[in-house]
Specification:
Number of helices: 8
Order of helices and strands: HHHHHHHH
Number of strands: 0
Shape: globular
CATH architecture: Orthogonal Bundle
Largest sheet: none
InterPro entries: Cyt_c-like_dom, Cyt_c-like_dom_sf, Cytochrome_c4-like, Cytochrome_c_Oxidase_Subunit
CATH topology: Cytochrome Bc1 Complex, Chain D, domain 2
Bound molecules: heme C
GO cellular component, one term: periplasmic space
GO molecular function: electron transfer activity; heme binding; iron ion binding
Binding site for heme c 2: 87, 90-91, 133
Radius of gyration: 15 Å
Keywords: Heme, Iron, Metal-binding
CATH class: Mainly Alpha
């Protein structure tokens, strides 16, 4: 699953992403033709619509316990030897998101999380405030990316 779950995402966060795709700081070739048709009001409307849908659960795929344990470590505690701050320190308790700046990533599809981290590594996505995500993605190995994505996908998207 390399498509994101949109239901339950913060409306302002989603609107920012759509504007970023339109302006090119977030590359999303499959989204481009659609986003280009939307004006500001339609972006606000479609974002509001998705934000009100109940969040659905992502799919972590088939990975073994050791990989999940590494993913959990990165997500909740980080890895100081690698200068990787825990995901939770920005994405909030349960990695369920904080306000409109830090999106919920728990319960997101593993393939989508992986793709985003690689996009930051490769400079295809450069729309995050102060390059916060770019800096983290740079420090992550392929194995770490797979592990954290798989573990996050198994976590509940909301407390409700
Ligand atoms: C220093 C703060 C910070 C830390 C730590 C952090 N993130 Fe982020 N993350 C952000 C911000 C800010 C955004 C929103 C970027 C934007 O506006 O496009 C984001 C966005 C994301 C997204 C995109 C979600 C979407 O739907 O667009 C993913 C995936 C992600 N982060 C994964 C992670 C993972 C995995 C970790 C831990 C290894 C992590 N982040 C740690 C700040 C952080």
């Amino acid at each position: 699953e390399s498509w994101p779950r949109l239901a339950g995402l913060d409306a302002d966060y989603m609107a920012k992403q759509l504007h970023d795709i339109k302006e090119g700081s977030r590359e999303a070739p499959t989204m481009m033709p659609f986003v280009n048709m939307l004006d500001d009001q339609q972006i606000a409307d479609v974002s509001a619509y998705y934000s009100q849908l109940p969040a659905t659960q992502g799919d972590g795929g088939d990975v073994d316990e050791a990989v999940l344990a590494r993913g959990e470590q990165l997500a909740l505690r980080g890895d100081w030897d690698e200068y990787i701050v825990s995901c939770k320190s920005c994405h909030g308790p349960g990695n369920q998101g904080v306000g409109s700046t830090f999106p919920g990533i728990a319960g997101q599809h593993a393939g989508y999380i992986e793709n985003q981290l690689r996009a930051w590594q490769e400079g295809r996505r450069a729309n995050d405030p102060q390059n916060l995500m770019g800096a983290i993605a740079q420090r992550m190995s392929d194995e770490d990316i797979t592990a954290v994505a798989a573990w996050l996908a198994t976590q509940p998207a909301t407390d409700e």
